Amino acid sequence: MTIRTTAVRVLAAASALAVLAACGSSGSSSSSGTTSGAPVHGGNLVIARSQDSQSMNNTTVFDNESIWVFEQMFQPLFTVTPNGKGVQPLLATGYKVSSDKKTYTFTLRPGVKFSTGKAMTSADVKFSLDQARAAAQGWGYIDSAIKSVAAPSPSTVVVTLKYPWAPLLADLSLFSNAIVPANYGGKSETQFYTAPVGTGPFKWDYWHKGSALKLLRNPNYWEKGKPYLNSVTWTDVPSDNTRQLQLKGGQAQVDEFPAWSTVASLKSTPNVVMHLFNSTRTDYMSFNEKVKPLQDVHVRRAISLAVNRSALVKAVLFGNGKPANSLFPPQVPYYSAANQGLQYNLSAAKAEMAKSTVPHGFSTTMLVPSGFSDWSTVASIVQSELKPLGIKLNIQQLDPNTVSTDQQSLKYDMTLTYWTMDIPDPDELATFAVDPAAGSKSFFTAYNNPTVVKDTHQAEQTLSTSARQALYNTVQSQSAADAFMAFLYYSPYAYATTSGVHGFFVTPLGNYHLENVWLSK
Questions:
Q1: Residue 136: per-residue pLDDT
Q2: How far apart are CA 518 and CA 521, in angstroms?
Q3: What residue ranges of the chain have pLDDT lower than 50?
Q4: How far apart are CA 378 and CA 312, in angstroms?
Q5: pLDDT tens profile 392-433
Q6: In 3D, which of 128, 22, 113, 116 has the Cα closest to residue 76?
């Protein structure tokens, strides 16, 4: 998201019917997981990031910077495998499914406690899933197939569906379905999320908004011997240059998303490890369809056709990526390589403008977060590429947190955003992106094509792999033709760490498990 999620090679019907995928490993240019010596306990990890979190409420928030924090505190019944292609048990140990594929009985992991020391039971699971599916303005849509959740015994949870649902296990691995204490431990929802409690490896310490957020080691964590770290702190450092200086100076041990222009030099920097993890990240240029003339499909197509994606990959990513052709990234099941999307074609762009309501051009504004040098470069290139169409593009740079809020409130003309998969199924991304009623206003664009919406939801209830593929092919091709966003490029996850950081690994979905991270003494 600044938004996100990923996939498996068809966890579609398989996820709803079959055996859990085995744990695998996804590659990176340099894996900090391969280290000599046994892990040691202690140390305080500092992650310097470009913008602050928005909220710790896992059922309503949309930004990655929040998600990656509260995933260290909250855990769902299942989690994504390291290769991003399946799910495996986490707070559940297994399940049984009825012959009509509408009733799932889950067995909970014994001995799990919240960070308060209180045992987790099925009552907590039922409460959490009920709250998650009731979140009309958040991620409730992901659980729309659930009819009821029951807790017949402390260690058993029964989920009854309205109809067979292909991505159920993948959906249950989503962060919004993580388990919190029943009735929020006696607090109101608002009170609870100011100092949240979960079963994860870390627990709440403080959040100085706009500055730093800190979690402490959870002494009641159920996985023996973990986590290794005493604490993790995420600092809010919008400037690419400042984050890199802090990494080199030892004030931070992880630089989240260093500028692509610095990747080559970081690879040869002493005591720094430059990681390029396999990814499901897709960068987009969004159009607000509530703003004239961007509700005109010909205008949106013209802009999308005028963007030279290969040039962006070269100039922005320094070759570390590929042009995007689809709403879906290639690692997602049901991605269609045959769908070419709208690629660079200036003649076709001019033809679309000629058909539009503004054939001679217009002025508009692109909203860009300050401090993001890569996106500033994208904006400058697009500004130049739109001039032959008579489009004057003004670039407005604001604080990253303000930009995120304005995007979600549709207070922009054009903007840049990205997505990474959270689950190994296209279900989350497709609904988030194209359904205006899903709580995200179609990726905060106000896009609405009834055919695309219908096919997206039909795919969720279709257990046949081939039939789901056909539906998602339509979703990809039609959403590209509607140009509700310009699909720009796919890129790996770039993280720079100090050489003393071990076990830091980012899955293709963007998830990372900090319980596995340790620091050299």
A1: 72
A2: 9
A3: 1-34
A4: 7
A5: 999 999 998 899 999 999 999 999 999 999 899 999 899 999
A6: 128
Interatomic CA distance for residues 23 and 1, integer angstroms:
25
Is the Cβ–Cβ distance between 208 and 460 less than 8 Å? no
197, 116 Cβ separation under 8 angstroms: yes
- Give the C-alpha separation, 289 to 297, whole Å: 9
Segments forming the whole domain that contains residue 481:
279-492
CA 433 to chain centre: 12
Residue 182, domain member (yes or no): no
Structure confidence at residue 36 (pLDDT):
56
Q: Determine the distance from the C-alpha atom of residue 242 to the mean position of all C-alpha atoms in its chain, rounded to a whole number.
A: 25
Q: Specify the 3-state DSSP secondary structure of 232.
A: strand
DSSP assignment of 305-328, as one string?
A: HH--HHHHHHHTSTTSSEE--SSS
State residue 2's pLDDT score: 45
As a whole number of Å, the CA-based R_g of the chain is: 22
- In the chain, the amino acid numbered 241 is N
| 136: in domain | no
Beta strands across the sheet bearing 146-153: 92-97, 103-108, 156-161, 146-153
Closest CA to 327 of 371, 280, 292: 280
Evaluate whether 233 touches 214 at the Cβ level (below 8 Å). yes
Q: Is residue 119 part of a domain?
A: no
Q: Which amino acid is at 83?
A: N
Side-chain half-sphere exposure of 238, counting CA atoms within 13 A: 16
Residue 82: cis peptide before it, omega within 30 degrees of 0:
no
Q: For residue range 8-53, list pLDDT tens digits in order.
A: 223 333 333 333 333 323 333 444 444 557 999 999 999 999 999 9
How far is Cα 365 from Cα 383, in angstroms, rounded to an integer? 10
User: According to the model, what pLDDT value does residue 439 have?
Assistant: 81
Total tally of structural domains belonging to the chain: 1
pTM score, whole prediction: 0.84
Using alpha carbons only, give the angle 15, 179, 41 rounded to the nearest 5 degrees.
Answer: 100
Distance between CA 243 and CA 50 in Å, rounded?
Answer: 8
β-strands 78-80, 518-519 pairing: unpaired
Report the alpha-carbon distance of residue 382 to residue 396 in Å, rounded: 13
| 270 falls within a domain | no
Tell me the C-alpha distance between 228 and 248, whole Å. 23
What's the CATH code of the domain at 488? Answer: 3.10.105.10
The amino acid occupying position 108 is: L
